[in-house]
Design brief:
binds magnesium ion; binds 1-deoxynojirimycin; 6-stranded antiparallel β-sheet; 8-stranded parallel β-sheet; about 25% helix; 17 helices; alpha/beta
C-alpha cells in the first residue's frame, strides 16, 4: 500500500517506468494449494481433519513448495454443506480446533514465508445463524430485511420460478411470518439481502476480523450471485436442457447471477480488503469464460483473481486445450492477471479424465502457463475420483439432487499420507472412504520414488523459482500440431519453450529448436542439449531453455 502511494505521487510520465520495475504482487507469483480441512489430517481421532492436524503437515507443504494455502470454511457451521453454511463468521468450529489454533497456524505459515487465504461465504449464512433466527422471528425485527423475504404469488405459491441450485424452488415458505425467503443453495442456507446496508456492514466487519488477525486474503464463495433482480423477474427455460439435465439447471439464471448490482458489491468488498496492505481476493465466479473479464473491474477494481476453472471441462486434447487457453486469455482484460485451477472440492479430479500419464503433462501445463496456478490436495499424488457406495454418500447435493452424477464426495476423500490402514490420515474412522490403491498412491511411497508425479510437482514448482520467465515472462502461443500443445515464455534473460505431447504415442514438434532440456515429465535427461525438431516420447512434456 505504501508503495502504491509513492507511485501515485510521481509525475505521470514516470509512473509507467516505475510500475514496470515494481515487483509483482505475491499472489501473481504464488502457487496456491486448496485444502479441504476435514480431509487433510485428523489429530484427535474423530475421523475428520482439523487445524492441529494441518499444522503437523507443514513440513510436507514446505517440501512440496506451495506458497499459499486456501482452506475450505473453518467456521462454526451445521456442516450440511462442508461448512459453507456458516453459523458464525468470527469463530472456529470446535471440530477444526480453536481460534488459538488458527492464530498459531497463521503464525507458523508466515514464519515459513507461506500465506493463507480463507474461504468466506458472503452470499448466505446457515439458517441457524443468529442473524437469520432474528430475521425470521417477526416481520418487524430489525434484522428482518437482512435476508430476502417476499410475499407469495397471487396463487399462494413461491414469488417466482427461481430454482435452488440444490433442488426445488429457491423460495422457502416461513409459516410463522407468512412470507417466503430466498436461498440460492440449500433452504438451510438463506441468502443475505445485499441491498441492506447493515447486513453489508456486518459482512465487512467479519472480513476485517480475519484481516486484522493477519489472514492474507479470501476465496469468496459464490460471489457472482450476491444480488438478485429487484423485480423478481422469472428466469427463462434453458433450451439446451433435456431430461438428463439436473432439474436445478433447466432454467437459465438470467435474473440471479452476475447482475450489475452484484458487480458493484464486489467493488465494495474489494475496498474493505484494500484497507489492509497486500491482501488478495480470489473469487468463485459462475458463467462462461467470456464473462470473466468484468469480474476484474476497471476503474473500480473487483476481484484480483476471478477463479478460472475452464480447464476442468475442456476435453484433454491439443486442439481443445489450444482453444480453451485462447478463449480464456482473450477474456482477461489488459489490467487483469490470469489464473488456472486444475481441481477443487467441487471439481472432478482431472487425473480421472486425463489418466495418469497425462496428469503429468497437465502438471507441466499448470506450472508453466502464464498465470497463478491453483491445485487441490491430492492432485500432486495423481489422485482420482474415489468410488462412493450409495450408503456412504455425504454430499447433500447428491442427497437432494441424486442420480445426475453430481456427488462431490469422490474428490473430497481424505489425503493419503502413507501405506498404513488409515493412510496416516486418522486413528479413527475416516468420514469418507480412502478409496482404492492407497498402498501405491500416498505421500510416503511416492516420495521414495524420485520419478513419481509427486516429485514432478515439486520439481516444476522449484523450476518457477529458478526461471522467472515462467512467472513474469511474456506468453507467446505456438501453433498446436500433431497433438502437441506448445508455447514460449520469455523474459529479459531467457526464453523457454514448453511442448506438451497430449498423445500416447511419440510425436515430433517441427522447428529449428536449439537449447537445453530443463525438465521432462519423465524426470530424466535434464540438462541434455537439443537441436532441430523436438522429439517427444509418448505423453511427454518438456521445458526447454532456448539458446539465444
Ligand atoms: C460453492 C462452494 O464451492 C460449494 O462447495 C458450496 O456448496 C456452494 N458454493 C454453496 O456455498
Ligand atoms: Mg479431528
Amino acid at each position: 500500500r505504501r508503495r502504491m502511494r509513492e507511485v501515485d505521487d510521481l509525475p505521470s510520465e514516470a509512473k509507467g517506468a516505475s510500475a514496470a520495475k515494481r515487483e509483482q504482487p505475491w499472489w501473481q507469483r504464488a502457487v496456491f494449494y486448496e485444502i479441504t480441512v476435514s480431509s487433510f489430517q485428523d489429530s484427535d481421532g474423530d475421523g475428520k481433519g482439523d487445524l492441529p492436524g494441518l499444522i503437523q503437515r507443514l513440513d510436507y507443504l514446505e517440501w512440496l513448495g506451495v506458497d499459499a494455502l486456501w482452506l475450505t470454511p473453518i467456521y462454526p457451521s451445521q456442516m450440511l454443506d462442508l461448512g459453507y453454511d456458516i453459523d458464525d463468521y468470527c469463530a472456529v468450529h470446535p471440530m477444526f480446533g480453536t481460534l488459538a489454533d488458527f492464530d498459531r497456524l497463521l503464525e507458523l505459515l508466515h514464519a515459513r514465508g507461506m500465506r493463507l487465504i480463507l474461504d468466506f461465504v458472503p452470499n448466505h449464512t446457515s439458517d441457524q445463524h443468529a442473524w437469520f433466527r432474528e430475521s425470521r422471528s417477526s416481520r418487524s425485527n430489525p434484522k428482518r430485511d437482512w435476508y430476502v423475504w417476499a410475499d407469495p404469488a397471487p396463487n399462494g405459491g413461491p414469488p417466482n420460478n427461481w430454482l435452488s441450485r440444490f433442488g426445488g424452488s429457491a423460495w422457502e415458505w416461513d409459516d410463522f411470518t407468512r412470507q417466503y425467503y430466498y436461498h440460492a443453495f440449500l433452504r438451510e442456507q438463506p441468502d443475505l439481502n445485499w441491498r441492506n446496508p447493515d447486513a453489508r456492514a456486518a459482512i465487512a466487519d467479519a472480513l476485517r476480523f480475519w484481516l486484522r488477525r493477519g489472514v492474507d486474503g479470501f476465496r469468496l464463495d459464490a460471489c457472482a450471485v450476491l444480488v438478485e433482480d429487484e423485480f423478481l423477474r422469472d428466469d427463462p427455460p434453458d433450451l439446451e436442457a433435456d431430461e438428463k439435465t439436473p432439474p436445478p439447471q433447466r432454467l437459465k439464471r438470467t435474473f440471479t447471477d452476475d447482475t450489475p448490482e452484484t458487480m458493484s458489491q464486489l467493488e465494495e468488498l474489494r475496498r474493505v480488503v484494500d484497507e489492509f496492505a497486500d491482501r488478495v481476493i480470489a473469487g468463485e465466479v459462475q458463467g462462461d469464460t467470456d464473462r470473466i473479464g468484468h469480474f476484474y473491474g476497471n476503474s473500480s477494481p473487483r476481484l484480483h483473481l476471478p477463479l478460472n476453472d475452464a480447464l476442468i471441462d475442456t476435453p484433454w486434447d491439443a486442439l481443445s486445450l489450444q482453444a480453451a487457453v485462447y478463449a480464456y486469455l482473450k477474456a482477461v482484460p489488459e489490467q487483469g492477471w490470469p489464473d488456472w485451477l486444475i481441481g477443487g472440492h467441487d471439481k472432478l479430479r482431472m487425473a480421472s479424465k486425463t489418466g495418469q500419464a497425462q496428469a503429468r503433462v497437465l502438471a507441466m501445463f499448470l506450472f508453466t502457463i502464464k498465470g497463478t496456478p491453483f491445485f487441490y490436495m491430492g492432485d500432486e499424488l495423481g489422485m482420482e475420483r474415489v468410488e462412493i457406495a450409495s450408503n456412504q454418500v455425504q454430499d447433500i447435493f447428491e442427497k437432494r439432487v441424486g442420480g445426475y452424477g453430481l456427488n462431490r464426495d469422490p474428490e473430497r476423500t481424505p489425503m493419503r499420507w502413507d501405506a498404513s490402514e488409515k493412510a496416516g490420515f486418522t486413528t479413527g474412522e475416516p468420514w469418507l472412504p480412502l478409496g482404492e490403491g492407497v498402498a501405491e498412491r500416498n505421500v510416503a511411497t511416492l516420495r521414495q520414488d524420485e520419478r513419481s508425479i509427486l516429485w514432478l510437482y515439486r520439481t516444476l514448482i522449484r523450476l518457477r523459482r529458478l526461471e522467472p520467465a515462467l512467472v513474469a515472462g511474456d506468453y507467446t502461443p505456438l501453433r498446436s500440431r500433431d497433438d502437441v500443445f506448445a508455447f514460449l515464455r520469455s523474459a529479459e534473460d531467457a526464453t523457454l519453450l514448453i511442448a506438451l505431447n497430449l498423445a500416447p504415442e511419440a510425436r515430433k514438434y517441427e522447428g529449428g529448436w536449439d537449447g537445453r532440456l530443463l525438465v521432462s515429465t519423465y524426470l530424466d535427461r535434464s540438462g541434455i542439449a537439443l537441436s532441430g525438431a523436438l522429439a517427444l516420447r509418448p505423453n511427454e512434456g518438456v521445458v526447454v531453455k532456448l539458446n539465444r
